[in-house]
């Protein structure tokens, strides 16, 4: 099962139900997808929804034919939504029917939404991606050491917008979509493990999206490193080197020396370019590589451990469980 890719909407403009999808596009549409034709038929909305543990994942594709079109985003239940505007259009929105919000292209915002919401869309195609979750999911995250300084502030803000029946939580700290957000969205869209594994996988990716959003709020005023074309190229070489040597331990000081760059550029520059620290990237890529090896039928357990830098499969499974919340064997089952 797949979420729509960004360019797939053209193929679905004339469809009225998932059963109308041509077989050659069947892998691009998910169960629970639907086309909604509103009264004037000036707009067509494709809605997709997936359950992922503590999160619900939504993606909307909207085709507007009128000069200016209103839609009424209504959550299934009052909840928090991490919202990503995926296209190049600016959208005027009114949360709780009153609070005016400019949804800018490639921007990520956190909302509390109830029933009365309005979005005014210009003509054309629009794509919105968001994950929904309960307040407790956010508060559990904010209790972790790196984010604890935001706990009281966000707890008060959530209480305030609940009383107002909706609102933006992070205003005025808007967050831009970066390469890391885009990578996580791509991985959620393209996930094709078995049903149980897909649920754990998507839940982890949603958790990483929320953590990254909060981290961006914390670092919003952090000074930037000037990244020349040569520095970007070098950091890209570092990333590829790490991928090719994921079975080996990595020492950042030695790695900086090997590529003749400072540890400051390696750490801060890598995070600035990729939206994730190098240490976190190494661990994330190692876990991703494990999921790919587990999907290979007949791949011996000890080979998977050796290829990903673990002393044995038991150590691998312990790390895998800590990361994804399930045993590696869940991903070993065939799709």
Description:
By secondary structure, the chain is an alpha+beta fold. The protein folds into two domains: 8-199, Jelly Rolls, CATH 2.60.120.10; 227-332, Arc Repressor Mutant, subunit A, CATH 1.10.10. It is built from eleven helices and twelve strands. The chain has helices at residues 135-142, 151-163, 179-190, 195-218, 229-244, 252-258, 263-274, 278-294, 301-307, 313-324, 329-332, and strands at 34-37, 43-52, 55-64, 69-71, 79-85, 91-95, 99-103, 107-113, 117-121, 124-133, 166-168, 175-176. The strands form two sheets. Strands 1, 2, 3, 5, 8, 10, 11 and 12 form an eight-stranded antiparallel β-sheet that branches. Strands 4-9-6-7 form a four-stranded antiparallel β-sheet, with no helix packed on it. β6 and β7 form a beta hairpin. The chain is globular. The N and C termini lie close together (10 Å). 31% of the residues are buried. Residues 1-7, 15-19 and 21-35 have low confidence and may be disordered. It comes from Chitinophaga pinensis (strain ATCC 43595 / DSM 2588 / LMG 13176 / NBRC 15968 / NCIMB 11800 / UQM 2034). One of its GO terms (molecular function) is sequence-specific DNA binding. Residues 236-334 form the HTH araC/xylS-type domain. InterPro entries: HTH_AraC (IPR018060), PchR_regulatory_protein (IPR053142). This is Transcriptional regulator, AraC family.
């Amino acid at each position: 099962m797949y979420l729509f890719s960004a360019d797939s909407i053209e193929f679905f403009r004339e469809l009225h139900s998932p059963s109308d999808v041509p077989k050659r596009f069947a892998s691009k549409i998910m169960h629970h997808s639907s086309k909604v034709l509103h009264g004037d038929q000036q707009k067509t909305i494709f809605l997709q929804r997936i359950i992922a543990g503590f999160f619900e994942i939504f993606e909307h594709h909207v085709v507007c034919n009128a000069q200016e079109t209103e839609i009424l985003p209504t959550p299934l239940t009052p909840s928090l939504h991490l919202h990503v505007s995926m296209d190049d259009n600016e959208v005027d929105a009114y949360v709780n029917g009153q609070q005016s919000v400019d949804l800018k292209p490639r921007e990520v915002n956190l909302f509390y939404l109830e029933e009365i919401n309005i979005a005014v869309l210009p003509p054309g195609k629009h794509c919105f991606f968001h994950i929904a979750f309960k307040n407790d999911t956010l508060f559990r995250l904010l209790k972790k050491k790196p984010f604890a300084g935001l706990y009281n502030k966000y707890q008060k803000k959530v209480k305030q917008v609940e009383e107002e029946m909706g609102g933006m939580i992070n205003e005025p700290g808007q967050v831009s979509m970066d390469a890391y957000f885009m990578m996580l969205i791509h991985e959620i869209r393209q996930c094709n493990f078995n049903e149980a594994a897909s649920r754990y996988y998507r839940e982890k990716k949603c958790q990483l999206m929320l953590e990254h959003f909060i981290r961006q709020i914390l670092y919003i005023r952090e000074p930037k490193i000037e990244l020349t074309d040569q520095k970007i190229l070098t950091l890209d070489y570092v990333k590829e080197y790490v991928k090719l040597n994921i079975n080996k331990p990595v020492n950042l000081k030695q790695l900086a020396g090997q590529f003749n760059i400072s540890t400051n550029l390696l750490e801060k520059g890598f995070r600035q370019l990729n939206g994730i620290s190098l240490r976190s990237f190494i661990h994330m890529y190692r876990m991703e590589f494990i999921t790919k090896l587990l999907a290979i039928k007949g791949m011996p357990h000890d080979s998977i451990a050796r290829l990903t830098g673990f002393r044995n499969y038991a150590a691998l499974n312990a790390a895998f469980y800590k990361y994804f919340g399930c045993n590696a064997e869940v991903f070993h089952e065939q799709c």
